[in-house]
Sequence to fold (567 residues):
Amino acid sequence: MPRRFLVTAGLPYSNGRLHVGHVAGAYLPADIFARFQRARGNEVCFVCGSDDHGVASLMKAREEGVPVEELVGRYNRLQEEDFGGLGIEFDIYGGTHRPEFLETHTRFSQSMFRRVHDNGYFVKRTTKQLYDVEADQFLPDRYVEGTCPKCGNEDAHGDQCDNCGSTYDQIELENPRSTITGTTPELRETTHWHLSLDRFQEPLREWLETKREPHGDQPAWRPTVLNFVLGQIKGGLPERAMTRDLHWGIPVPLEDPDAEGKVMYVWFDAPIGYISFTAELMKRQGNEADYERWWKSEDSEIVHFIGEDNTVFHALVFPAMLMAEGTYQLPSQVVSNSYLNINFGGEEQKISKSRGNAVWVGEYLQDFDPDPLRYYLTAVAPETSRTAFDLADFVQRNNSELLGALGNFVNRVLTFTRRFFDGVVPPVGTRDEADAAQIAAIARAQTAIAENLDAHRYKAALGELMALSREANVYFNEKEPWALRKTDPEAAGTVLNVCVQTVWSLAVLMSPFLPFSAARIRTMLERPEGDWVWDSATEELPAGSPIGEPVLLFRQYELESEDDSAE
RNA sequence: GCCGGCGUAGCUCAGUUGGUAAGAGCGCAGGAUUCAUAACCCUGAGGUCGGUGGUUCAAUUCCACCCGCCGGCACCA
Fold:
């Protein structure tokens, strides 16, 4: 009985290009998981898209002097391009404000909002907030500066003073000014709908506690995720406003006059994007209502891949929303990675645009192939703690591991076969103990990789793949087919037969991680194209199968001068 | 301050339920080989498993305390 996985990767803000940190955190492991489960014969729906309603996008559009729709549309496409270039293949890539998705997304978001409202989980509260008359909007803390009420620093932020470190409410700020227009904002009353997270503390806690151990077919959640959110619950969950006074977002669908001109909080509508994009995909396939098979059917497993900064929303707020709505099932798994830092100038730093240390996907792809990056980011994946991207390390691992161990084995086997065995798979002949051991190693690696991937241990799974290629190199060396072919050609043929089987297996087993290279091997072995089938890793190619012109899988990289290393 | 994570060979890190598991990869050194992208293969590191106590017949693996890094404690996502 095949399983069914609805896989999501955290929606990126459509206000910038993607860098390696984004990829390592959510998208690459999600893609590997989706590819793997598909190869296993499971049904997979892999959904992503951009989160277009972020305030950051609004600010950026204002900076650039372009309409925000234009800005998010542009980055939505650029991000989709970056993903495509890396072989991260979603079944659908939407956008919460992408024109073709807007109607569906609005409908789903408003429906969710209304149901949560009707079920009584919103609390309406009126508070005072700063209002920029000229910009005609209320000001989030980010948009206010002024004089710190504690220390007198004149450039204090709306909620916190960088000078003395104290925090306060924005209305306590002296001489407040809007960072949008520079004008002095006035105090106005505003009403918002708050989600009563406190009412879900106990249900959330009980639900999360069950994730400490494997449940059903799902492995336990990563302790870092559970520790963090259970800690939050222990400290008490606050009410959170789910509406905003902005002109950018999904309109609040209530009849209430106080709801006039308000939009949903971006984190309310963003996760609904996962659902609305799924619905849009189903609509294109014929029947929108099929989204329920993925989101409301208990035999569907929902797996969210996110960066650590999204943990609260995917493990607490969104589940609480779903509980409040009442008809959805909760996620089976939230796979959260830590941040990927970057080694830059001999120092480990956070990746940040302003520091100019980011390695951008788009720029990377101009000079390098996608698979080496997929390999490296998986090898150093921040699964349990923060790790760092290091260009020298990347080059090193590409050359010594990817090329030296894996690429070299494939290449030596195929060129050898072409040269000495007429370019076809030699007969099996009689396998001795060592030959059988090598064949057995394939099945062992296949199992080990599968177990690790099922458990979301990508780094370990990749390690098993590399271990197989190393074993294969050792086997080849010990058999010395270059000498054996002169004394016992038939035995040499047996060795190469085993080696070709191993090459094929490597292709199947690497396909979730290194899809481009796997496809190249498939071409060289003249196997039919199509979906990868995990079980075919142990299906042997018949003797006499042709072997095409060998193509190098990986290139040797050199570390160039530091300047262009990470621009 | 409170909460969480981390501290294992030169480097990057694995170590599941406590007892011949103190390991891998890389780097480095020596050797071997030629099928292969100066790739591959073999051998070598004697590392107080951050520190100090404790539990135990036995702890890197459990407990306490301490030291050192990192992160979270915002109407920020």
User: Anything to note?
Assistant: The domain at 4-118+269-361 of chain A is CATH 3.40.50.620 (Rossmann fold). The radius of gyration of chain A is 27 Å. The CA atoms of residues 213 and 220 of chain A lie 5 Å apart. The longest helix of chain A spans residues 391-420.
